[in-house]
Amino acid sequence: MWITTERVFYAGLLGDAAERTMGGHGVYVSPTGAPLSIRIGGGAWQSGELLVVPPQVPHQVKTEHRLVLNLLIEADSVDPSRLPHFMQHCGPVDAPAFVRCVREAYARLLDASGSGSFEGFEFDSLFFDEPLAPRAIDARIRAVVDRINADPAAQTSAEECAAAVKLSFSRFLHLFKQETGVTFRAFRAWKRARSLLRYVRQSASLTDIALDTGYPDSTHFSHSIRQVYGLRPSDILAGSRRLALIQ
């Protein structure tokens, strides 16, 4: 798994996940050509080698092969109107050149993992051949977004953020959703859940990880993680024990 502040690439077991709701642009690629299946918001199952899911869309993915290649692009980092055409859809998409590119990128990362050196790899160039267009966000909201990205576990309230950027509380909430596409509360919840990925290779207890990632207790932690990933935190950690982690 390759994690940056704005991107994630995961190659591994899909797991028997229930419905999940991610905060970024999700891309699922079959590593072998065997079709993946997706159900959007409880609808009918659809199949394809490439699945695309916009942010905050509930969905369930499964595959008989068990393995999946998964990219996650943070919504606050890219202009949705300037994403590659195939990423402006929801569900199975026909984009064979991109599927081939992802598989080749995975092979290159596997080769690099043998030497332990990942110097020279740039995420967007590796998977998309060029940098994705950044999202233009009001400077005041960008300051808050950067603050949350820097420390997702911080117990910073919307009131504190509004005061920090000199906006009224109601104006801040309206502007935040307008600029990022989601509410402040949903954004903060997603970033906190996403931060779990940085702990998947640590030996700390679930309680310690819950506290380190900003959750008040392990019960709240487990409930929130299952809503986002469709899996229990313990299952995510167990399935990641043999994962090579790039940060």
Offer a concise description of the structure.
The protein has 247 residues and is of the alpha+beta class. It has helices spanning 96-115, 123-128, 139-150, 158-164, 169-180, 184-194, 206-212, 218-229, 233-238; strands spanning 2-3, 7-13, 24-29, 36-40, 45-48, 50-53, 59-62, 67-74, 91-92.
What features would you describe in this structure?
The protein is α+β, with helices and mostly antiparallel strands. It has two domains: 2-128, Jelly Rolls (Sandwich); 137-247, Homeodomain-like (Arc Repressor Mutant, subunit A), CATH 1.10.10. It is 38% helix and 17% strand. It has nine helices and nine strands. It has a six-stranded antiparallel β-sheet, with helices on one face. Strands 5-4-7 form a three-stranded antiparallel β-sheet, with no helix packed on it. A hairpin with a 3-residue loop joins strand 1 and strand 2. Helix 4 crosses helix 5 and helix 7 crosses helix 8. It is globular, with a radius of gyration of 18 Å. It starts with a strand and ends in a 9-residue tail after the last helix. The model has no long low-confidence stretch (mean pLDDT 92).
Write the layout of secondary structure elements.
Elements: E1 2-3, E2 7-13, E3 24-29, E4 36-40, E5 45-48, E6 50-53, E7 59-62, E8 67-74, E9 91-92, H1 96-115, H2 123-128, H3 139-150, H4 158-164, H5 169-180, H6 184-194, H7 206-212, H8 218-229, H9 233-238
